């Protein structure tokens, strides 16, 4: 599948005229993909640092392209956002994530949350809140288990409207977190105004936290600020025990990363959660 990924990538890039053709092809196949529901959802565990237990997961979309096979988000999310298809893809991902989470809870798995990524186009879309409500109703998932991830950049691009949509989602009982924290250009004042419960520290601050004192200081400051605002903190992209040790010392609540697991299919996620309880 690595080979396929590379083929798809070089196919969709190279020079400009090829790029236009490739975009048209990608565009057509994306429209079909939505109709044929060619997307699947993988789950990356979120782990409580103090206990080592998996407490939830982030839902991450993959496209099973009929010819190219397994296709990563960076190959199709940008065009899907540009064309607005992300609205419908987002609905399909959210529905699958809610179905899977409901199934896990009904089977007795003890989990706190399933996190789903939002994009600007979804927040802008008129029918968005209604579609979230419809999915919560049809899947019978208690909204307190659902978490939406938004970025600072998204919020700043659409401040007034984003505030009103996020307030409404929060009033439904949904949890909200800031994704890729520290990478967007923004004032921090939105943290006061918005009903946010969690900050996800971007992987770029975690990558060299076991080697770079500046990254330790930045992470320490983010955690201190978050805690004083009553927010929980999750560190993204943890790959090594040495990174985890520092995050534990800094009292970071939870992490995601290859150190626990890559994003995996629901069956494999179940196995991971089961294993830790035996
Ligand atoms: P993100 O939301 O920041 O997701 C985290 C990305 O980091 C995921 O890549 C995940 O596989 C990767 N990752 C997690 N832990 C590690 C690690 O320890 N090391 C390394 N090297 N990488 C790690 P992925 O799944 O390729 O997703 C990329 C981006 O695509 C996501 O970044 C998100 O912005 C977007 N995306 C994925 N699924 C959806 C979706 O359903 N809707 C929307 N709107 N965007 C999505
Ligand atoms: Ca995310
Ligand atoms: Ca992220
Ligand atoms: Ca990131």
What does this structure look like?
The protein has 278 residues and is of the alpha/beta class. It contains 13 helices and 9 strands. It has helices at 2-12, 16-35, 73-83, 86-106, 120-124, 128-139, 152-157, 159-171, 190-193, 203-206, 213-228, 241-249, 266-276; strands at 39-48, 54-65, 69-71, 113-117, 146-151, 175-181, 198-201, 232-235, 254-255. An 8-stranded mixed barrel has the order 1-2-4-5-6-7-8-9, surrounded by 5 helices. Helix 4 runs parallel beside helix 6 (128-139). It is globular. Residues 179-180, 200, 236 line the site of one calcium ion.
Helix share, percent = 40-55%
Rounded radius of gyration (Å):
19 Å
β-strand percent reads 15-25%
- Most strands sheet: 8 strands, mixed, barrel
Question: Could you provide a short overview of the structure?
Answer:
The chain is α/β, with parallel strands linked by helices and 278 residues long. The chain has helices at 2-12, 16-35, 73-83, 86-106, 120-124, 128-139, 152-157, 159-171, 190-193, 203-206, 213-228, 241-249, 266-276, and strands at 39-48, 54-65, 69-71, 113-117, 146-151, 175-181, 198-201, 232-235, 254-255. The site of one calcium ion has 4 residues, from strand 6.
Q: Would you spell out the secondary-structure blueprint of this structure?
A:
Layout: H1 2-12, H2 16-35, E1 39-48, E2 54-65, E3 69-71, H3 73-83, H4 86-106, E4 113-117, H5 120-124, H6 128-139, E5 146-151, H7 152-157, H8 159-171, E6 175-181, H9 190-193, E7 198-201, H10 203-206, H11 213-228, E8 232-235, H12 241-249, E9 254-255, H13 266-276
Parallel strand pairs: 2-4, 4-5, 5-6, 6-7, 7-8, 8-9
Antiparallel strand pairs: 1-2, 1-9, 2-3
Helix pairs in contact: 2-3, 4-6
Bound molecules: ligand C2E and calcium ion (3 copies).
GO molecular function: cyclic-guanylate-specific phosphodiesterase activity
Domain EAL: 23-277
GO biological process, one term: cellular response to nitric oxide
């Amino acid at each position: 599948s690595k080979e396929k990924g590379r083929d798809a990538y070089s196919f969709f890039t190279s020079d400009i005229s090829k790029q236009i053709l490739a975009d048209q092809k990608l565009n057509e196949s994306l429209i079909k993909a939505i109709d044929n529901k060619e997307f699947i959802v993988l789950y990356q565990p979120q782990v409580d640092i103090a206990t080592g237990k998996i407490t939830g997961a982030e839902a991450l979309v993959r496209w099973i392209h009929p010819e190219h096979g397994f296709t990563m988000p960076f190959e199709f999310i940008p065009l899907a956002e540009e064309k607005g298809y992300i609205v419908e893809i987002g609905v399909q991902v959210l529905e699958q994530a809610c179905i899977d989470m409901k199934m896990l809870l009904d089977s007795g798995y003890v989990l706190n949350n399933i996190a789903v990524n939002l994009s600007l186009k979804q927040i802008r879309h008129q029918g968005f809140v209604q579609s979230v409500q419809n999915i919560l109703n049809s899947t019978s998932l208690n909204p307190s288990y659902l978490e939406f991830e938004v970025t600072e950049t998204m919020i700043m691009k659409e401040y007034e409207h984003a505030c009103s949509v996020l307030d409404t989602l929060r009033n439904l009982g949904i949890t909200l977190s800031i994704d890729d924290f520290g990478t967007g250009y923004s004032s921090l004042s939105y943290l006061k105004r918005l009903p946010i419960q969690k900050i996800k520290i971007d992987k770029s601050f975690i990558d060299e936290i076991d080697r770079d004192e500046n990254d330790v200081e930045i992470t320490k400051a983010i955690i201190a600020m978050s805690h004083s605002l009553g927010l929980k903190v999750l560190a993204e992209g943890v790959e090594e025990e040495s990174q985890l040790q520092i995050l534990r010392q800094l009292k970071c609540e939870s992490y995601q990363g290859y150190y626990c697991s890559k994003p995996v299919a629901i069956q494999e996620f179940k196995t991971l959660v089961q294993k830790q309880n035996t």
